[in-house]
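Researcher: Let's do a round of design. I'm pasting the structure tokens now; please hold your answer until I've finished.
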């Protein structure tokens, strides 16, 4: 956005998805439950949907100049294309490790026990779900906020009644997450598996980082040309030419 001349709008242009599928972006809810009762009470499951960060609902484009909106679409597509290329090359091995770690965490006995306790807590409060990830994804579907293959999130967002109900659900989720230490156990188990993978694959990881940094530097040098040639229409995952639906971040 800086190179396009609209750096002041970097945090304002909404993006429907996060290109990074497991390396960086944080979100308050997932397999680990809902982290943060304050965020749950204020935003519920709309926190971070289709917008930067996790602090609230997606921003509106009403007050953003058309040029900035065009630049935002171009920049988003440039990032998506770059990440697609990286996941097929330098990050392919890291993504495989990330998937393996996620599977190991979900199957870990300590996390399974915590999930069972979370599910029982939710049931005592009138909500029935086998695990926190299913609970959150089902609610995102109900609210029209989940990006699925070939479709975009609902632009209208939840109704007032839906919003009140989903906030109550998120608060209960957050309280049960806290009382069962679901998130604490999830991330402790995850950290253990991550360290094991790092120890076993240090040379490959170092090589991947070097390859990624070199590709990133080349991409920066190409930005002037890319900003002229990129489409301003956001090409969401699941649409032709895109890889599958992004997964929630695991850290």
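Researcher: That's everything. Go ahead.
Model: Designed sequence:
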């Amino acid at each position: 956005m800086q190179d396009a001349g609209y750096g002041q709008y970097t945090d304002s242009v909404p993006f429907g998805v996060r290109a990074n599928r497991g390396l960086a972006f944080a979100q308050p809810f997932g397999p680990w439950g809902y982290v943060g009762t304050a965020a749950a009470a204020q935003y519920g499951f709309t926190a971070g949907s289709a917008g930067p960060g996790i602090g609230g609902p997606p921003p509106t484009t009403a007050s953003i100049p058309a040029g900035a909106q065009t630049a935002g679409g171009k920049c988003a597509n440039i990032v998506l294309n770059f990440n697609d290329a990286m996941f097929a090359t330098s990050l392919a091995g890291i993504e495989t490790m990330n998937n393996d770690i996620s599977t190991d965490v979900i199957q870990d006995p300590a996390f399974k026990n915590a999930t069972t306790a979370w599910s029982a807590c939710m049931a005592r409060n009138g909500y029935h779900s086998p695990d926190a990830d299913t609970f959150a994804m089902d609610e995102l579907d109900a609210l029209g906020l989940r990006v699925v293959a070939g479709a975009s999130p609902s632009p209208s967002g939840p109704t007032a009644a839906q919003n009140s109900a989903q906030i109550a659900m998120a608060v209960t989720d957050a309280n049960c997450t806290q009382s069962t230490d679901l998130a604490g156990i999830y991330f402790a188990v995850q950290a253990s598996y991550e360290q094991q993978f790092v120890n076993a694959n240090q040379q490959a990881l170092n090589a991947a980082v070097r390859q990624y940094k070199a590709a990133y530097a080349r991409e920066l040098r190409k930005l002037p040309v890319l900003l002229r040639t990129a489409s301003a229409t956001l090409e969401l995952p699941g649409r032709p030419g895109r890889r599958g639906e992004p997964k929630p971040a695991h850290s």
